[in-house]
Amino acid sequence: MANILAVDDDKSILDLIENVLNKSGHFVKKINEPEKVFQENLSYYHLIILDIMMPNIDGFQLCTRIRGSVDSPILFLTAKSDETDIIKGLGLGGDDFLMKPFGVQELRARVDAHIRREQREKINSVIIDNIRFSISSKECFVLDNKVPLTKSEYEISEYLALNRGKTFSKEQIFEVVFGYERESNLSAIVEHIKNIRAKFTQFKEEPIKTVWGIGYKWE
Q1: Domain finish residue from 73, 89, 119
Q2: 166 and 86: one domain?
Q3: 4-aspartylphosphate occurs at which residues (predicted)?
Q4: CA–CA gap between residue 209 and residue 219 (Å, rounded)
């Protein structure tokens, strides 16, 4: 069972989320006024669901204000198919997105996949050249410098690094890292890879290479 915080100004959406996730054994705290999020002990929640379009404080602003104090996965809800929203949300520290209207099975699959990823058994650490993965704490370092990766960025980096030299398509990365299949719109992986590269470049490392027409690999 996981504790989940759902924030949306639409009460019917919150009720749907609660009904679906309760059946999977999760506890859902519903908030329909985004300002009230700051009254919560956010470390209590294993996953946070944020609607993007809300009055006063939108999902992007909320993510920016809470991301520094919580490391749980953040799943955005968006009614727009515009990839600009998706790219912006991932850049602010979000981990995934779900398009409205969404299906019950897709919501359940997304949430359960993120929860499984958070609760899986941990091992110690892996060192590849100057880069060290602390798998128990989900942190990555270049020498003694911590690379500020988000949860999803870390998972992608770890997966590619542990399979060093092998090339994986966007579809393969998405399915393995996030734990469910997706038939379209893989822009999340492209944006995550771009963000990962920018963060490693700060430390003069460029471990992820593009294999044109196929995908990505860790060298």
Answers
A1: 119
A2: no
A3: 51
A4: 7
Are 27 and 114 contained in the same domain?
A: yes
Burial 72-84 (b: 16+ CB within 10 A, else e): bbbbbbbeeeeee
| Location of structure tokens 């038939």 | 183
Q: Mind listing the pLDDT tens digit for each residue in 109-131?
A: 889 888 887 766 555 678 888 99
- The Cα 177–Cα 142 span in angstroms is 22
Q: What is the DSSP string of 1-60?
A: --EEEEE-S-HHHHHHHHHHHHTTT-EEEEESSGGGGGGS-GGG-SEEEEESS-SSS-HH
- Check residue 215 and give its pLDDT: 93
Q: Model-level pTM?
A: 0.64
The confidence score (pLDDT) of residue 197 equals 96
